[in-house]
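>> received
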Amino acid sequence: MDPIALHKVDESNFMACFGLNLRDGQERFVSHPIRSLAQAYVYYDQCTPFAVCRGDEVVGYVMVIYDYDEQTYNIWHLMIDGAHQGKGYGRTAMELALDYIRTKPFGASSRVLMTVSPENRAAFGLYQSLGFSATGRSDEEEIELGLTLD
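>> returned
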């Protein structure tokens, strides 16, 4: 089986990102890559959108963004296509995103934040298993999780 890799979204893979689909009911947990890539266009000087790929196939999407005000990295919109969920691709994508953040592409911070709906048990469990914990802050119906990289 081909390994999972992150490839920056570009002209060769953005349409495949647009074609990703979630399972029924998951749309309330994550924004579609079309919306996320529009945000990436606006925040181009502080973010990197990635296609999550298995070989040449796009199986997911994730964006890393830097908050210059808080001096923290944020992981936005991680999604794995519904047909590819449950195979460990989300975990690998998160690990690769954290490896990217360790290179400090936008700033010297080692702090990583993200939000998650407590109802999204699979994602919440994944993030906790990677060392993320609640910060005590929330964003609408989602709670903020944080991690300090070593």
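>> The mean pLDDT is 93.
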